[in-house]
Amino acid sequence: MIWQLDLVILTLVVICGIGSLMIKDLLGAAILFGAYSFMMCVLWAIMGAVDVAFTEASVGAGVSTVFFVAAVFHTTRRTKD
Amino acid sequence: MTSHLPALVVTVPLLTAFAAFAAGWLRPKLCFPVGLTGLGITAISSILLLAEVLEAGTVTYELGRWPAPWGIVYVVDRLNGVVLAAISLCAFIQWISSRASVKSQFSDRIGAFYGLELLFVTGAMGITVTGDAFNLYVLLEIASITAYALIAMGGGRAPLSSLNYVFMGTIGAWFYLLGVGYLYIMTGSLNMADLASILQGMRSSQAILVAFVIIIVGVWLKMGFFPLHGWLPNAYTHAPWPATTLIAPLMTKVMAYVMMRLVLFLFGPEYSFGVLGLKDVVVWWASLAVVAGSVIALSQKDLKRMITCIILIEIAYMVGGTFLGNRSGTTGAIFHLVNDVFMTLCVFLAVSSLAFRQRELDMDAMEGLFSEMPFTMGALVTGALSIVGVPPTCGFFSKWLLLKGALEAGHYEFMVALILSSLVCLVLFFRVFEAAYFGHGERSHGHHRMREAPLGMVVPLLVVAIGIVALGLMSGKVISSIIEPALPRGVL
Amino acid sequence: MDRILEVVIAKYNYWIYIVLMMIGLYGVIAKNNLVKKIVGMSIFQTAIILFFISMGMKKGATIPIIIHGQEASVRASDYINPLPHVLMLTAIVVAVSTLGVALALAVKIYKEFDTLEEDEILEKIRKS
Amino acid sequence: MRILGILVCVATGAMLIWASGEFPPWGDPNSPASLHVSPRYIEKTMEETSVPNAVTSVLADYRGYDTMFETTVIFAAGVSCFMLLRLFSGRERSSHHYRHILTGLTLRVRRKGKQLPELEEFEPMDSLWTPYDLILRTLCRFLIPFIQLFALYVIAHGHHSPGGGFQGGVILGASMILLAISQDMRSALRRIRERTLAIFSVAGVAIYAGTGALCLLLGSNFLDYAALSRIFPVDPVGARSLGIFLVEVGVGIAVMATMIVIYHNLASEGFLDEGL
Lengths: 81, 492, 128, 276
Known about the structure:
The complex is a heterotetramer of chains A (81), B (492), C (128) and D (276).
Chain A: H1 3-22, H2 26-46, H3 50-74
Helix pairs in contact in A: 1-2, 2-3
Chain B: H1 5-26, H2 31-56, E1 59-62, E2 73-76, H3 78-97, H4 99-105, H5 110-129, H6 133-151, H7 158-187, H8 192-200, H9 206-223, H10 231-238, H11 241-266, H12 269-275, H13 279-298, H14 303-324, H15 327-356, H16 369-372, H17 374-388, H18 394-409, H19 412-438, H20 442-446, H21 455-473, H22 475-483
Antiparallel strand pairs in B: 1-2
Helix pairs in contact in B: 1-2, 1-5, 2-3, 2-5, 3-5, 3-11, 3-15, 3-21, 5-6, 5-11, 6-7, 6-11, 7-9, 7-10, 9-11, 10-14, 11-14, 11-15, 13-14, 13-19, 14-15, 14-19, 15-17, 15-18, 15-21, 17-19, 17-21, 18-19, 18-21
Chain C: H1 2-30, H2 34-55, H3 83-113, H4 118-127
Helix pairs in contact in C: 1-2, 2-3
């Protein structure tokens, strides 16, 4: 567990989190949320939680992003805030 | 042969839910009878379980035969025995009476609707009977997700109010999970009995204090306690009638039971009342919540929204009663919890049969109802009297105990709030009855023919009304045999 | 000075999860767009899962799968605590289920009101 | 609303940070969480359940009851999405699009009502979302069997390596979703009809609850797999490993079917005719 690597990934996770909330386009928010989930999965794999990382990769990064994109496809990409 | 009743009580509705959903696809006509038998078996087994608990004291059941801190253990004592019986009876009666409205509104997806209703009952039963903190969270999520979907079936504004309920409900449930995580990181165990014994020694730690605050805030958010109640009036009002009559009597009462279980048994009365000194603050808060609930209920025009706001008042009673700290206050709160399940069920079923007859639910369009629907209005009168707290009905006895507890604890503001809200409820219901009985609008001139709701709705309604009165008459025996010994020793 | 550094090294993981949780909570409360609120809710949930995982961590221990050769002499301190992982498998599945239902509701709301902005929807309700 | 949000977040965050001061240092081997309950899971997992992956043994056996309700949660989500979004009356289309398979020529037929029957040279085409990419379609058609093979490996191999019912089920579901995205939803629905998906999702969860009930019928407690040794020719420890495998298969089926149901309803707004 190299703590520098852990720190770098944690900051990336925080940046992706804030980015997906701040971005003005919903599709962009969905993709950034997928990146956030993937970063989270890498973080857990480093921490030794392999089962949870596997689930987060397939469920969090994979299927959630598909659901988000499918939902945004049927609503709008436009957001005011 | 250890009795498998605690396991049956939860797995029977679960398997019935799967059977009902499958029947929805294969032979839709079978959905209702399958659910009826399942809930019937659940009701019988929970009453047998209560009887067994009354004789043999606390019943424990190890899931998968793993001992306590390692596996998940069901602990059934008198407190959750009586709540289990109340939930299963309420669900059984609601199932019978909501048949007509479900068939008329959701005939093309009847399997899914009935499956979700049964999963909600499974969640409610599981929350009441489990002895493991994390298992309680998982069952809380089952009850919540099914409640979100059932409420959103109302059409029009229902999805928006359901989405607001999703946001607030998820934050509440995950705050509870975070609190359990804080307890786990400090003690290392998830079993409630094990946690309670370890927590005795960690009175002064900050993390346990924050865990207590987070869990209580999460439970209050799910319960709809006053400042955190934003989602409740919209969610229950825009929900379809079969969903409201199931969720309104059960969800908030089960969360009140969870609060009592945590405050009285997990953290212990000394810790939750003494160390933090928030006992008086919460009782003041509950009195404020009662007054605010009454004001909100007074300002409502629609009958359905008014009785939803009355639930806010009932919840404030229970929170205030628990945090009074003395024996009669807590007994009053537990007895009020059991009464409230049936009172709310009676009032909601009555108003739903009014709505089923396409009657205007607006307050001042209620002419001639007594002549048209005497039985439904009779049951509504009984439910209203019980909510107001008039002697023969059970509502009076629990309110009397709450008043006695408030007097002993010296919380006069809670007593004033209790009496004030009873008067407000009286005014609310009298307004409806006055219009319904004496109303001479153009509708009642034409005909006095009785257009009662279908038999399937009226008979369960009358059974609940009679049950309320019977519970009131037997309240002495119920309190002394079931609720009095349920309290932990610490409650002085 | 090194004592503070030592405390920071020991606790920074917990502070990061609190920062993430507050981002999620802020997203749910303050954002106006419904899908943005759903994203905030998911971030809030993932942060709590991160807290549970970092709770079971043991320095110098390997993943909780018993090594093939040493079934006999298994020492608990060699392996990471598996219990938080089990709890979080449940939490992730619950998070996805809530996400699925919330997105279904958002699609249904859009079909009804043609917008996802909370204030525009309330405006339309007040008018109708 | 913005100020309220900031206020609430800062207050909760400060309270949480104040409490985290008392936590055991991060990764400390003798923190209470690692000493009280979990040592038994690690040390006894091989001896009691003969499953080296401690997470799978705790997930499906020691705390198997949680996982049963977790599968019920994902099942409830699938049923909710079906109930909320599904609309049985189809979208009335004034015109239908067809693509000539050999030349890629697109044909627009102005005709109300149902699609034309299948023609040899022409294939029906979505009129809502029409990108057509030969490379993508053939590559996905080539890739999907291997994804499903890997998913079956993940479900079966949950005892020894990371993975298990959930992960395998989601990957199986994802392979069908990939088919629905690369081809079109109609061909995905032709592979697995909506009715079989519903029956699969119920069957998966019913397998899990049924195994538990079977142990109940065999006289032992609910979900106590050792009771399976009475009917299967295995010793009680082997029976636990067998019970875990049965349960993982049930979870895999349920999660696969539910993920596809949620995708189909979300991507086609309930009409199940044209999706992403």
